[in-house]
Amino acid sequence: MSVETNVTDPNAVDVSPPEQAGAQPGAEAAGTTAASAKATRRRRTWPVAVLAGTVAVVLAATAALGYRAKVAGEVESARTGASGAARTAAQVVLGYDYRHLDADFGRSRALLTGDFRDKYTQTATSLVRPTATQTHAVVVAEVRSVSVVSATPDQVVTLLYVNQTTTSNRAAEPRTDLNRVRMTMRRVGDRWLVSGMKGL
């Protein structure tokens, strides 16, 4: 036979301090106040966050547009500068006079750059000089028009219509050839120089 003992004292008295007994409602109130303050802060900060995000987007868009405008301005400047340089270069490079070939070739080389300059020198020396000297050739190049095929700030491809009039001891009358020339111009420092040329 067993006896269960009730360890709960029915006469026990709550000896908790009055303030402790009443702490729960105060804590709840404090919690409610803190939550309310937090909610208020959230209500006050989200417009700021949205505004900051909007400003960031606007600034990024403005920067992108500014960059595109800058590049567009550089390309337009390149088109203008390279077209003028191509016109001048074509008249010099595609013309010569057998009586002063060295001077003509020197003027031409000053307008060329890169590998094309070396190729021009080789061609002028090995082909043009002997033929021009033998035939007393004088070639005058006249650029009729220039258009731009493509352009970047540092390279412009142009298309030129060039009339080359040749006089020589092989023909009684001057002969004029109507040529189309594709000329690539490259920016070197503050100058536009010919980096490639091809007859079409």
UniProtKB/TrEMBL annotation:
Residues 21-38 have a biased composition (Low complexity). GO terms for cellular component: membrane. The lineage of its organism: Bacteria, Bacillati, Actinomycetota, Actinomycetes, Propionibacteriales. This is Mce-associated membrane protein. The chain crosses the membrane at residues 46-67. It comes from the Bacteria. Residues 1-39 are annotated as: Disordered. It is found in: Membrane. Keywords: Membrane, Transmembrane, Transmembrane helix.
